[in-house]
Amino acid sequence: MSAADAADQRHLARCLALAARGGRTSPNPQVGCVIVSARGRVLAEGWHRGPGTAHAEADALAKLGGRAPRGATLYVNLEPCNHHGRTPPCAPAVIASGVARVVIGVRDPIPGHGGGARRIARAGIAVTTGVLADACRAHNRGFFTWGERGRPWFTLKAATTLDGRIATAAGESKWITGPAARAEVHALRAAHDAVLVGVGTVCADDPRLTVRDAVGPDPIRVIVDSRLRTPATAACLAPGARTIVAGRAPLAPARVRALTAAGAEVWSLPATADGRVDLGALAGALAAAGVTSVLAEGGGAIHAGLIAAGLCDELQLHVAPIALGGRRGGPAWLGGAEVARLADAHRFTPIASRVTADGDTILTFAPAPAAPGRRPARGRAS
């Protein structure tokens, strides 16, 4: 690797660190910008703080205090936008600034937003793209899923025993994993736009679904509840975070009124053939509401339904070093219909494994591509 390439990677990595300062910026991406002189001195840094605020490039250029960065290089992890939204496009501002070169991590995936790189190049400015592209995509994976596939990124998470149980046969589930793993779950909530559970989890555990053991904002709370069985006194309906109860049409007017009075938004969604909420339709509705990432915390029927619907982008299993055993044990983290043949099993690719201070193991997987000719395993949505 040349010294120039190494410098490009170093400054792009700095862009990603700056981007993370913006926190939750959805539906906008997290973007950072660094402006470096021809001699390698950092002149200014900027980052995007959320919808309606200055984009990273504009933020960094404003910090120059009117100085023209002639001959400088502008680094940004996402292609400068070329459209009018809540703020003016960045590409013209970059061109007018006088920089000699622009280095871009990855291009904008949304039709109508891109074109900034081409516009900058047509103005005679050298443009380099694809530096740390994989890291830049991963940093904004929710935004890219939202822009390219029209749905949020879904992370499925479950706390299990060694034998895959999420509760005892009597329903006891607090607590399978220790405080360290639970704090990581709260950090996951803070990092996602929404947290999703089924009504069975609400009725059994009465979770708050807020961020308490980590720093960050509460996510939108989404309850999948085909028949609107969520109690009006449920902890997840407490004032604070936005709460959506997703039911399947037609909805009982009395239940809609009760949940609305308790502070929830009630969404009426199409039903599947077996009378459950169509999770694909829910994913589309969340995307339309600007939700780019969802943490699904269960239960087993929800996980099965999401996997069957192709709505699993990452799986996290927080495994405690305990086993329950028995022929009639508690529920498993994955419910739904049982797979009859090993050849039809859900398959995952290991990504990472680590042990918390309490001795729990956090396993991270990505769904494996289906083998040619293999029938997909089926689950039931909740």
Q: Which structural class is indicated by helix and strand composition?
A: alpha/beta
**What Rg, in angstroms, do the CA atoms define?**
23 Å
Number of strands: 14
Shape: elongated
Instruction: Report the β-strand fraction as a percent range.
Output: 15-25%
Percent range for helical residues?
25-40%
How are helices and strands ordered from N to C?
HEEHEHEHEHHEHEHEEHEHEHEEE
Between the first and last Cα atoms, what is the distance in angstroms?
51 Å
Q: If you average the pLDDT, what whole number results? A: 91
Low-pLDDT segments, ≥5 res? 376-382
Main beta sheet: 9 strands, mixed
Strand order of the largest sheet: 10-9-8-7-11-6-12-14-13
Number of helices: 11
Task: Tell me about this structure.
The structure is a single chain. It is built from 11 helices and 14 strands. The protein has helices spanning 3-20, 56-62, 90-97, 116-122, 133-139, 141-149, 179-191, 199-205, 253-261, 279-288, 300-308; strands at 32-36, 42-47, 73-78, 101-106, 126-129, 153-160, 194-198, 220-224, 243-248, 265-269, 293-298, 314-319, 348-355, 361-367. The chain is an alpha/beta fold and 382 residues long. A 9-stranded mixed beta sheet has the order 10-9-8-7-11-6-12-14-13, sandwiched between helices.
Quick take:
This protein is 27% helix and 22% strand.
What's the structural blueprint in terms of helices and strands?
Blueprint: H1 3-20, E1 32-36, E2 42-47, H2 56-62, E3 73-78, H3 90-97, E4 101-106, H4 116-122, E5 126-129, H5 133-139, H6 141-149, E6 153-160, H7 179-191, E7 194-198, H8 199-205, E8 220-224, E9 243-248, H9 253-261, E10 265-269, H10 279-288, E11 293-298, H11 300-308, E12 314-319, E13 348-355, E14 361-367
Parallel strand pairs: 3-4, 4-5, 6-11, 6-12, 7-8, 7-11, 8-9, 9-10
Antiparallel strand pairs: 1-2, 1-3, 12-14, 13-14
Helix pairs in contact: 3-4
